[in-house]
Amino acid sequence: MQKYRCTVCGYVYDPQAGDPDNGVDPGTAFADVPDDWVCPECGAGKDDFEPVDA
Amino acid sequence: MDQAFQAVPITDRVHWVGAIDWAIRDFHGYATTRGTTYNAYLVVADRVTLVDTVKAPFRREMMARIASVVDPSQIDTVISNHSEMDHSGCLPETIAAVRPARVLASANGVKALAAHFGDLGCPVEAVADGQSVSLGGLDAMFVETRMLHWPDSMFCYLAGENVLFSQDGFGMHLASCERFADEIPGPVLRQEAAKYFANILLPFAPFVLKTLTRYRDLGLTVDIIAPDHGPVYRMDLDWILSLYAAWAAQEPTRKAVVVYDTMWESDAVMARAVAEGLSAGGAGPVRVLPMRAAHRSDVATEILDAGALVAGSPTLNRTLFPTMADVFSYLEGLRPQNLVGAAFGSYGWSGEGVDRVADALKAIGVDIVAGPVKVRYRPTAEDLGNCRAMGREVAEALVGRVGSG
Fold first, then answer.
1. Which of A7, A46, B101, B299 is 20 to 30 A away from residue B201, measured at CA?
2. Does domain B8-249 have CATH number 3.60.15.10?
3. What is the ipTM of this complex?
Protein backbone atom coordinates (compact mmCIF):
# COMPACT_ATOMS: atom_id res chain seq x y z
CA MET A 1 0.00 0.00 0.00
CA GLN A 2 1.17 3.53 -0.84
CA LYS A 3 2.97 5.42 1.91
CA TYR A 4 2.51 9.19 2.30
CA ARG A 5 4.98 11.72 3.71
CA CYS A 6 4.18 14.98 5.51
CA THR A 7 5.81 17.76 3.50
CA VAL A 8 6.05 19.92 6.60
CA CYS A 9 7.92 17.67 9.02
CA GLY A 10 8.76 14.49 7.14
CA TYR A 11 6.60 12.07 9.13
CA VAL A 12 5.67 9.06 6.95
CA TYR A 13 2.20 7.54 7.15
CA ASP A 14 2.52 3.81 6.59
CA PRO A 15 -0.87 2.23 5.86
CA GLN A 16 0.34 -1.10 7.26
CA ALA A 17 0.91 0.56 10.63
CA GLY A 18 -1.94 3.07 10.51
CA ASP A 19 -2.00 5.59 13.39
CA PRO A 20 -3.78 3.67 16.18
CA ASP A 21 -3.07 6.34 18.83
CA ASN A 22 -5.27 8.66 16.80
CA GLY A 23 -7.98 6.19 15.79
CA VAL A 24 -6.62 4.98 12.45
CA ASP A 25 -6.40 1.18 12.31
CA PRO A 26 -3.46 -0.64 10.73
CA GLY A 27 -4.26 -1.46 7.14
CA THR A 28 -6.05 1.84 6.41
CA ALA A 29 -5.19 3.29 3.03
CA PHE A 30 -4.33 6.99 3.13
CA ALA A 31 -7.39 7.89 1.07
CA ASP A 32 -9.55 6.22 3.73
CA VAL A 33 -7.99 8.12 6.63
CA PRO A 34 -10.59 10.66 7.89
CA ASP A 35 -10.35 14.13 6.36
CA ASP A 36 -9.91 15.75 9.75
CA TRP A 37 -6.91 13.57 10.63
CA VAL A 38 -3.70 15.54 11.13
CA CYS A 39 -0.05 14.60 11.13
CA PRO A 40 0.64 13.16 14.59
CA GLU A 41 4.04 14.83 14.63
CA CYS A 42 3.35 18.39 13.59
CA GLY A 43 -0.40 18.85 13.10
CA ALA A 44 -0.37 19.45 9.33
CA GLY A 45 -3.49 18.39 7.42
CA LYS A 46 -3.89 15.58 4.87
CA ASP A 47 -3.44 18.18 2.10
CA ASP A 48 0.17 18.59 3.13
CA PHE A 49 0.98 14.93 2.47
CA GLU A 50 2.45 13.52 -0.73
CA PRO A 51 2.95 9.91 -1.88
CA VAL A 52 6.43 8.58 -1.25
CA ASP A 53 8.36 5.40 -1.99
CA ALA A 54 10.13 4.78 1.27
CA MET B 1 27.03 45.21 47.59
CA ASP B 2 24.70 44.26 44.71
CA GLN B 3 25.34 41.10 42.76
CA ALA B 4 26.40 41.89 39.17
CA PHE B 5 23.54 40.11 37.39
CA GLN B 6 20.06 41.08 38.50
CA ALA B 7 16.59 40.00 37.42
CA VAL B 8 14.54 42.56 35.50
CA PRO B 9 10.91 42.92 36.61
CA ILE B 10 8.37 42.46 33.82
CA THR B 11 5.24 42.54 36.02
CA ASP B 12 4.62 42.18 39.76
CA ARG B 13 5.14 38.44 39.66
CA VAL B 14 7.17 37.90 36.47
CA HIS B 15 10.91 38.57 36.17
CA TRP B 16 13.30 38.24 33.24
CA VAL B 17 16.22 36.07 34.35
CA GLY B 18 17.86 35.32 31.01
CA ALA B 19 21.28 35.94 29.50
CA ILE B 20 22.68 38.36 26.93
CA ASP B 21 25.03 36.96 24.30
CA TRP B 22 26.90 39.91 22.79
CA ALA B 23 29.49 37.78 21.00
CA ILE B 24 27.59 35.16 18.99
CA ARG B 25 27.82 35.78 15.24
CA ASP B 26 26.80 32.37 13.86
CA PHE B 27 23.65 30.79 15.22
CA HIS B 28 23.38 27.44 13.36
CA GLY B 29 23.96 29.12 10.02
CA TYR B 30 22.16 32.40 10.78
CA ALA B 31 24.48 35.41 10.96
CA THR B 32 23.57 37.06 14.25
CA THR B 33 25.27 40.36 13.59
CA ARG B 34 23.70 41.94 16.67
CA GLY B 35 24.21 38.97 19.01
CA THR B 36 21.18 37.61 20.82
CA THR B 37 19.56 36.97 24.19
CA TYR B 38 18.27 33.74 25.68
CA ASN B 39 15.23 34.76 27.66
CA ALA B 40 14.16 32.81 30.73
CA TYR B 41 11.48 34.05 33.09
CA LEU B 42 10.79 33.55 36.78
CA VAL B 43 7.18 33.53 37.93
CA VAL B 44 6.90 34.13 41.67
CA ALA B 45 3.40 33.22 42.83
CA ASP B 46 2.60 31.01 45.84
CA ARG B 47 5.12 28.68 44.24
CA VAL B 48 8.08 29.60 42.05
CA THR B 49 8.19 28.62 38.38
CA LEU B 50 11.00 28.96 35.85
CA VAL B 51 9.95 29.37 32.22
CA ASP B 52 12.68 27.95 29.93
CA THR B 53 16.41 28.10 30.70
CA VAL B 54 19.34 29.42 28.67
CA LYS B 55 22.14 28.12 26.46
CA ALA B 56 24.54 26.09 28.58
CA PRO B 57 27.52 28.51 28.79
CA PHE B 58 25.25 31.19 30.28
CA ARG B 59 23.90 29.10 33.16
CA ARG B 60 25.72 31.11 35.85
CA GLU B 61 24.27 34.38 34.58
CA MET B 62 20.75 32.96 34.68
CA MET B 63 21.22 31.44 38.14
CA ALA B 64 22.59 34.75 39.48
CA ARG B 65 19.58 36.64 38.15
CA ILE B 66 17.23 34.07 39.69
CA ALA B 67 19.10 34.32 43.01
CA SER B 68 18.57 38.10 43.04
CA VAL B 69 14.84 37.37 43.47
CA VAL B 70 14.53 34.02 45.27
CA ASP B 71 16.68 31.18 46.52
CA PRO B 72 16.87 29.05 43.34
CA SER B 73 16.14 25.88 45.29
CA GLN B 74 12.62 27.27 45.74
CA ILE B 75 11.85 26.63 42.07
CA ASP B 76 9.00 24.14 42.13
CA THR B 77 8.16 23.87 38.43
CA VAL B 78 10.20 24.31 35.28
CA ILE B 79 8.22 24.92 32.09
CA SER B 80 9.95 23.90 28.87
CA ASN B 81 8.14 25.58 25.98
CA HIS B 82 10.68 24.22 23.47
CA SER B 83 13.50 21.70 23.80
CA GLU B 84 16.04 23.32 21.47
CA MET B 85 19.33 23.74 23.29
CA ASP B 86 19.47 27.52 23.27
CA HIS B 87 16.60 27.20 25.76
CA SER B 88 17.26 23.79 27.30
CA GLY B 89 21.06 23.71 27.24
CA CYS B 90 21.44 24.08 30.98
CA LEU B 91 18.15 22.38 31.89
CA PRO B 92 19.85 19.21 33.19
CA GLU B 93 22.25 21.18 35.41
CA THR B 94 19.50 23.51 36.55
CA ILE B 95 17.34 20.55 37.56
CA ALA B 96 20.26 18.99 39.40
CA ALA B 97 20.92 22.25 41.26
CA VAL B 98 17.38 23.32 42.20
CA ARG B 99 15.57 19.96 42.37
CA PRO B 100 12.14 21.07 41.08
CA ALA B 101 9.09 18.91 41.63
CA ARG B 102 8.41 18.63 37.90
CA VAL B 103 9.10 19.83 34.39
CA LEU B 104 6.13 20.64 32.18
CA ALA B 105 6.33 20.33 28.39
CA SER B 106 4.05 19.50 25.48
CA ALA B 107 3.60 15.81 24.59
CA ASN B 108 6.15 16.24 21.80
CA GLY B 109 8.33 18.21 24.22
CA VAL B 110 8.42 15.32 26.69
CA LYS B 111 9.66 13.01 23.91
CA ALA B 112 12.15 15.58 22.62
CA LEU B 113 13.63 16.31 26.06
CA ALA B 114 14.10 12.57 26.66
CA ALA B 115 15.76 12.22 23.26
CA HIS B 116 18.13 15.13 24.01
CA PHE B 117 18.98 14.40 27.64
CA GLY B 118 17.72 10.98 28.69
CA ASP B 119 16.44 10.79 32.26
CA LEU B 120 16.42 14.32 33.72
CA GLY B 121 16.08 12.98 37.24
CA CYS B 122 12.72 14.59 37.89
CA PRO B 123 9.21 13.97 36.54
CA VAL B 124 8.62 15.45 33.07
CA GLU B 125 4.86 15.83 32.59
CA ALA B 126 2.99 16.48 29.37
CA VAL B 127 0.51 19.35 29.27
CA ALA B 128 -2.26 19.24 26.71
CA ASP B 129 -3.21 21.98 24.28
CA GLY B 130 -5.49 24.35 26.18
CA GLN B 131 -4.74 22.81 29.57
CA SER B 132 -4.40 25.08 32.61
CA VAL B 133 -2.05 24.28 35.47
CA SER B 134 -1.92 26.11 38.80
CA LEU B 135 1.40 27.71 39.73
CA GLY B 136 0.00 28.51 43.17
CA GLY B 137 -2.53 31.34 43.08
CA LEU B 138 -1.84 31.89 39.39
CA ASP B 139 -2.79 29.69 36.45
CA ALA B 140 -0.65 28.90 33.41
CA MET B 141 -2.52 27.93 30.25
CA PHE B 142 -0.66 26.10 27.50
CA VAL B 143 -1.31 26.58 23.79
CA GLU B 144 0.42 24.20 21.41
CA THR B 145 2.10 25.96 18.51
CA ARG B 146 3.46 22.94 16.66
CA MET B 147 5.98 23.84 13.96
CA LEU B 148 6.54 27.36 15.29
CA HIS B 149 9.11 26.23 14.78
CA TRP B 150 9.42 22.64 16.12
CA PRO B 151 6.89 19.91 16.77
CA ASP B 152 7.29 20.50 20.51
CA SER B 153 6.75 24.27 20.52
CA MET B 154 4.12 25.84 22.73
CA PHE B 155 3.06 29.17 24.20
CA CYS B 156 2.22 29.68 27.89
CA TYR B 157 -0.30 32.32 29.04
CA LEU B 158 -0.58 33.76 32.56
CA ALA B 159 -4.09 35.13 32.92
CA GLY B 160 -3.40 36.74 36.29
CA GLU B 161 -0.58 38.82 34.79
CA ASN B 162 -1.79 39.08 31.15
CA VAL B 163 1.59 37.80 29.98
CA LEU B 164 2.02 35.54 26.96
CA PHE B 165 5.29 33.61 26.91
CA SER B 166 5.58 33.19 23.15
CA GLN B 167 8.78 31.12 23.10
CA ASP B 168 10.49 31.71 19.73
CA GLY B 169 7.40 33.41 18.30
CA PHE B 170 7.78 37.19 17.84
CA GLY B 171 11.43 36.84 18.86
CA MET B 172 14.58 38.25 17.32
CA HIS B 173 18.34 37.89 17.71
CA LEU B 174 19.29 41.17 19.32
CA ALA B 175 21.61 41.62 22.28
CA SER B 176 20.77 44.66 24.38
CA CYS B 177 20.84 45.83 27.95
CA GLU B 178 17.39 47.30 27.29
CA ARG B 179 14.79 44.63 27.91
CA PHE B 180 11.73 46.19 26.27
CA ALA B 181 10.95 46.76 22.60
CA ASP B 182 9.90 50.37 23.20
CA GLU B 183 13.48 51.09 24.36
CA ILE B 184 15.02 49.90 21.06
CA PRO B 185 15.15 52.04 17.88
CA GLY B 186 12.32 51.12 15.51
CA PRO B 187 14.42 50.38 12.40
CA VAL B 188 16.60 47.93 14.37
CA LEU B 189 13.54 46.09 15.70
CA ARG B 190 11.99 45.90 12.26
CA GLN B 191 15.14 44.59 10.62
CA GLU B 192 15.85 41.93 13.22
CA ALA B 193 12.20 40.85 13.52
CA ALA B 194 12.08 40.39 9.74
CA LYS B 195 15.37 38.50 9.68
CA TYR B 196 14.16 36.17 12.39
CA PHE B 197 10.86 35.48 10.63
CA ALA B 198 12.57 34.92 7.27
CA ASN B 199 15.14 32.49 8.60
CA ILE B 200 13.25 30.61 11.29
CA LEU B 201 9.51 30.80 10.63
CA LEU B 202 9.06 31.25 6.89
CA PRO B 203 8.61 27.54 6.06
CA PHE B 204 5.81 27.44 8.61
CA ALA B 205 3.95 30.51 7.36
CA PRO B 206 0.62 28.62 7.16
CA PHE B 207 1.07 27.63 10.83
CA VAL B 208 1.77 31.27 11.71
CA LEU B 209 -1.53 32.26 10.10
CA LYS B 210 -3.39 29.50 11.97
CA THR B 211 -1.79 30.55 15.26
CA LEU B 212 -2.71 34.21 14.74
CA THR B 213 -6.32 33.18 14.06
CA ARG B 214 -6.34 30.96 17.13
CA TYR B 215 -4.86 33.76 19.23
CA ARG B 216 -7.66 36.10 18.14
CA ASP B 217 -10.32 33.44 18.70
CA LEU B 218 -9.05 32.67 22.20
CA GLY B 219 -9.74 36.31 23.08
CA LEU B 220 -7.05 36.39 25.75
CA THR B 221 -6.21 39.68 27.42
CA VAL B 222 -2.54 40.07 26.65
CA ASP B 223 -0.64 43.15 27.84
CA ILE B 224 2.83 41.69 27.44
CA ILE B 225 4.35 39.32 24.88
CA ALA B 226 7.54 37.80 26.26
CA PRO B 227 9.53 35.88 23.64
CA ASP B 228 12.62 33.74 24.25
CA HIS B 229 14.96 35.92 22.18
CA GLY B 230 15.20 39.69 22.00
CA PRO B 231 13.10 42.36 23.68
CA VAL B 232 9.79 42.00 25.50
CA TYR B 233 6.74 43.77 24.04
CA ARG B 234 4.75 45.78 26.58
CA MET B 235 3.27 48.47 24.28
CA ASP B 236 1.69 48.42 20.83
CA LEU B 237 1.54 44.62 20.53
CA ASP B 238 -0.34 45.07 17.25
CA TRP B 239 2.89 46.22 15.64
CA ILE B 240 4.52 42.79 15.74
CA LEU B 241 1.23 40.88 15.31
CA SER B 242 0.36 42.70 12.09
CA LEU B 243 3.89 42.31 10.73
CA TYR B 244 3.63 38.55 11.32
CA ALA B 245 0.27 38.45 9.54
CA ALA B 246 1.74 40.28 6.54
CA TRP B 247 4.91 38.20 6.38
CA ALA B 248 3.01 34.95 6.73
CA ALA B 249 0.60 35.88 3.94
CA GLN B 250 3.59 36.25 1.56
CA GLU B 251 1.81 38.55 -0.87
CA PRO B 252 4.34 39.33 -3.60
CA THR B 253 5.61 42.90 -3.92
CA ARG B 254 7.53 44.57 -6.75
CA LYS B 255 10.81 43.98 -4.93
CA ALA B 256 13.30 41.88 -6.91
CA VAL B 257 16.43 40.14 -5.66
CA VAL B 258 19.38 39.02 -7.80
CA VAL B 259 21.71 36.45 -6.21
CA TYR B 260 24.93 35.32 -7.86
CA ASP B 261 28.54 34.38 -7.49
CA THR B 262 31.36 34.77 -9.99
CA MET B 263 34.76 33.36 -10.84
CA TRP B 264 36.09 35.97 -13.30
CA GLU B 265 33.48 38.77 -13.06
CA SER B 266 31.34 37.59 -15.97
CA ASP B 267 28.40 36.64 -13.76
CA ALA B 268 28.93 39.85 -11.81
CA VAL B 269 28.45 42.12 -14.81
CA MET B 270 25.59 39.92 -16.03
CA ALA B 271 23.90 40.32 -12.64
CA ARG B 272 24.20 44.08 -12.88
CA ALA B 273 22.72 44.05 -16.39
CA VAL B 274 19.82 41.90 -15.13
CA ALA B 275 19.26 44.43 -12.35
CA GLU B 276 19.13 47.28 -14.85
CA GLY B 277 16.47 45.38 -16.76
CA LEU B 278 14.47 44.62 -13.61
CA SER B 279 14.38 48.32 -12.74
CA ALA B 280 13.53 49.36 -16.28
CA GLY B 281 10.68 46.83 -16.32
CA GLY B 282 9.08 48.28 -13.18
CA ALA B 283 10.49 46.15 -10.35
CA GLY B 284 11.62 48.01 -7.25
CA PRO B 285 13.44 48.00 -4.95
CA VAL B 286 16.03 45.85 -6.74
CA ARG B 287 18.75 44.27 -4.59
CA VAL B 288 21.83 42.53 -5.97
CA LEU B 289 23.53 40.09 -3.59
CA PRO B 290 26.97 38.65 -4.49
CA MET B 291 27.35 35.49 -2.43
CA ARG B 292 30.98 36.24 -1.61
CA ALA B 293 29.76 39.36 0.18
CA ALA B 294 26.32 38.35 1.44
CA HIS B 295 25.36 35.78 4.04
CA ARG B 296 22.66 33.25 3.29
CA SER B 297 20.59 34.52 6.22
CA ASP B 298 20.63 38.05 4.78
CA VAL B 299 19.55 36.68 1.38
CA ALA B 300 16.60 35.04 3.13
CA THR B 301 15.68 38.34 4.78
CA GLU B 302 15.75 40.17 1.43
CA ILE B 303 13.52 37.53 -0.12
CA LEU B 304 10.93 37.74 2.68
CA ASP B 305 9.16 40.69 1.08
CA ALA B 306 10.28 40.15 -2.53
CA GLY B 307 8.27 39.08 -5.55
CA ALA B 308 11.11 38.01 -7.83
CA LEU B 309 14.32 36.00 -7.46
CA VAL B 310 16.82 35.91 -10.32
CA ALA B 311 19.92 33.78 -9.80
CA GLY B 312 23.18 33.23 -11.62
CA SER B 313 26.10 30.84 -11.24
CA PRO B 314 29.27 30.00 -13.12
CA THR B 315 29.81 26.34 -13.95
CA LEU B 316 32.56 24.79 -11.82
CA ASN B 317 33.44 21.16 -12.51
CA ARG B 318 30.11 20.62 -14.28
CA THR B 319 27.98 21.93 -11.47
CA LEU B 320 26.98 25.00 -9.43
CA PHE B 321 29.55 27.22 -7.81
CA PRO B 322 29.52 26.00 -4.19
CA THR B 323 28.27 29.22 -2.56
CA MET B 324 25.25 29.09 -4.85
CA ALA B 325 24.61 25.44 -3.91
CA ASP B 326 24.71 26.60 -0.27
CA VAL B 327 22.18 29.40 -0.61
CA PHE B 328 19.89 27.36 -2.87
CA SER B 329 19.79 24.51 -0.36
CA TYR B 330 19.04 26.99 2.40
CA LEU B 331 16.25 28.71 0.46
CA GLU B 332 14.70 25.40 -0.54
CA GLY B 333 14.26 24.66 3.14
CA LEU B 334 12.66 28.05 3.76
CA ARG B 335 10.03 27.58 1.02
CA PRO B 336 9.37 31.21 0.06
CA GLN B 337 6.07 31.44 -1.84
CA ASN B 338 4.81 33.49 -4.77
CA LEU B 339 8.10 34.29 -6.46
CA VAL B 340 8.76 34.67 -10.18
CA GLY B 341 12.32 34.37 -11.45
CA ALA B 342 14.92 33.40 -13.99
CA ALA B 343 18.40 31.88 -14.31
CA PHE B 344 21.64 33.06 -15.87
CA GLY B 345 25.30 32.15 -15.86
CA SER B 346 28.62 31.98 -17.66
CA TYR B 347 30.59 28.86 -18.47
CA GLY B 348 33.63 27.62 -20.39
CA TRP B 349 32.67 24.46 -22.22
CA SER B 350 30.07 22.17 -20.59
CA GLY B 351 27.76 24.76 -19.00
CA GLU B 352 25.64 22.63 -16.65
CA GLY B 353 25.66 25.43 -14.07
CA VAL B 354 22.78 27.44 -15.52
CA ASP B 355 20.55 24.36 -15.82
CA ARG B 356 21.31 23.62 -12.18
CA VAL B 357 20.33 27.18 -11.26
CA ALA B 358 16.99 26.70 -13.02
CA ASP B 359 16.48 23.34 -11.27
CA ALA B 360 17.31 24.91 -7.92
CA LEU B 361 14.90 27.80 -8.45
CA LYS B 362 12.15 25.34 -9.32
CA ALA B 363 12.92 23.27 -6.22
CA ILE B 364 12.56 26.44 -4.16
CA GLY B 365 9.15 26.97 -5.76
CA VAL B 366 10.05 29.92 -7.98
CA ASP B 367 7.96 30.28 -11.13
CA ILE B 368 10.47 30.74 -13.97
CA VAL B 369 9.10 33.33 -16.38
CA ALA B 370 12.08 34.24 -18.59
CA GLY B 371 15.53 33.19 -19.80
CA PRO B 372 17.84 31.48 -19.20
CA VAL B 373 20.79 33.49 -20.43
CA LYS B 374 23.97 31.44 -20.92
CA VAL B 375 27.23 33.13 -21.80
CA ARG B 376 30.53 31.59 -22.86
CA TYR B 377 33.55 32.95 -20.94
CA ARG B 378 32.92 36.69 -21.14
CA PRO B 379 29.67 38.49 -21.99
CA THR B 380 29.56 40.56 -25.15
CA ALA B 381 27.48 43.70 -25.41
CA GLU B 382 24.76 41.57 -26.99
CA ASP B 383 24.93 39.09 -24.09
CA LEU B 384 24.52 41.91 -21.60
CA GLY B 385 21.60 43.24 -23.64
CA ASN B 386 20.01 39.78 -23.33
CA CYS B 387 20.55 39.90 -19.58
CA ARG B 388 18.85 43.25 -19.38
CA ALA B 389 15.99 41.96 -21.53
CA MET B 390 15.56 38.93 -19.26
CA GLY B 391 15.45 41.19 -16.20
CA ARG B 392 12.87 43.32 -17.92
CA GLU B 393 10.76 40.31 -18.79
CA VAL B 394 10.82 39.12 -15.15
CA ALA B 395 9.85 42.59 -13.94
CA GLU B 396 6.97 42.81 -16.40
CA ALA B 397 5.68 39.40 -15.29
CA LEU B 398 5.95 40.54 -11.68
CA VAL B 399 4.16 43.82 -12.27
CA GLY B 400 1.50 41.87 -14.13
CA ARG B 401 0.86 39.87 -10.97
CA VAL B 402 1.21 42.63 -8.41
CA GLY B 403 0.07 45.75 -10.22
CA SER B 404 2.24 48.76 -10.81
CA GLY B 405 1.55 50.23 -7.37
1. A46
2. yes
3. 0.75
